[in-house]
Amino acid sequence: MAGSWGEVKLGAHSGPQVKDWVVNPRERLLGTIRGGKVDRVPLLLHDFHYASPEDVEEAAKRPIVERMLDETHFLVSFPAFINRYLVTPPQRIREVSREERNGETTTVSEIDTPKGPLTAVTGTNRVSRTTWTLKYPVESLEDIEKIRSVPWEMPPDLRPPDLTNVPAAFETRGVAHTGVSSPFVCVAGMMPYEFFLGLCNTHLGLLEELTAQCLERILEVLEVLLSTRVIDLVWMGGCEWLTPPMGAMAHYEALVQRFETPIIERIHAAGALSHVHCHGNVRSTLEMVRARCADYFEPVEPPPDGDITFAEAKALANGGMTLGGNIESRILVHGDAATVERAARCAFEGGKERMALQTSEGPLQPLTPGMSANYHTLIDVWEELSAIP
Question: Distance between alpha carbon 146 and the CA centroid of its chain, in Å?
Fold first, then answer.
């Protein structure tokens, strides 16, 4: 089942029909990522992909979900239990306290290390579902030695995935999925970002050692998750932390290119597809993502948010990988119908092969009537332009 796709004979489907066959949403997404033959460009609307409308908690979202239900996939996710604290075994991290105030939650955690405890403090907003760090567990070279002294153990809740209890619609709409961080992000994420960038210049060898340690741990976790060969798609995020101008190209090559490549190779060995997630300016590194054999790359954000148009990115990729883009969440939240339509039409420039029409993020606030109208405008353009002759 993993990674399969094909043609399904149907009499009709929503939107313009240009041939007597379509592929279902599952096959459409996986086929597009593989570079295979599909009926139309997939549509990916962050936070609007559900197995059933009954699963939607926010009432304002339901009309959009119902409209696109038969045309969109949903994910069945299997957790990897990989954190950005040097992939420290989760059983060595305990919650010390939790405080809720004004809709925000502050959590204090302690990492048990053989050389003494380390403390991390995070904040979470339940409306936007964003989490930020108030105190990093690593703030010095001494702290690095503490956290790297924690012996490796597999996460106790990690299990080989199975599809025994997936929703009934999985065969036509479901995609089995897991996600990991780029190995270097599991190093950078445990310390203040400016400290990490400084170490790139003063202690690059140390960062390479730590990243190699994270790579080894991530590969062990993937051995379990990929063992049953039911995972279709593996998400990997974080390389934007070193994409120029955030970091130097030499550091990107040393910490991203070198250490993401073995993960993609392991994903492919299991018959799954690799999904690299990277915001920001990607013009300088897009061909490097292709060189490490990623199957799907997103989001390609147009100026001023990024530094490359979708048409330019398609030309650089040259059919070597599938691209997702490039509808910015901000225009769906704050723009008008004309702005949304213009952005959607621009996304189709440069060809429809190996592309997905995708939003850069989901709404981080309750849906307003104006936002709902913008999503419907986006879907209107998708229905008009997405068919592939």
Answer: 30
Q: Give me the residue spans of the domains in the chain.
A: 8-89+140-385, 90-139
Between 12 and 319, the more confident residue is 319
Average pLDDT over residues 222-247: 96
User: Where in the chain does DSSP place strands (E)?
Assistant: 8-9, 21-22, 43-44, 74-77, 93-101, 104-111, 118-125, 130-135, 174-181, 233-237, 273-277, 296-300, 322-327, 355-359
Asked if 293 and 274 count as a contact pair (C-beta separation under 8 A), the reply is: yes
Judged by DSSP in three states, 38 sits in coil
The strand pair at 233-237 and 273-277 is best described as parallel
> In the structure encoding, which two tokens stand for residue 191, read together?
């310390």
Task: Please state whether the predicted TM-score (pTM) of the whole model is above 0.85.
Answer: yes
The token pair that represents 43 in the structure block = 């549509």
Give pLDDT tens digits for 287-333.
Answer: 999 999 999 999 999 999 999 999 999 999 999 999 998 899 999 99
Q: What residue type is assigned to position 341 of the chain?
A: E
* Burial class of 36 by CB neighbour count within 10 A (0 to 12, 13 to 18, 19+): middle
**CA atoms of 191 and 27, how far apart (whole Å):** 41
Angle at 43 between CA 42 and CA 49, to 5 degrees: 120
How far is C-alpha 38 from the geometric centre of its chain's CA atoms?
Answer: 22
- Which residues is 192 bridged to in the sheet? none
Which residue shows structure tokens 């380390």?
A: 118
- Residue with structure tokens 């100026």? 303
How far is Cα 108 from Cα 110, in angstroms, rounded to an integer? 7
User: Which CATH code fits 8-89+140-385?
Assistant: 3.20.20.210
- Tell me the two tokens of residue 99: 């405080």
Nearest to 354 by CA among 61, 121, 105, 41: 41
Q: Residue 126: its pLDDT value, please? A: 79
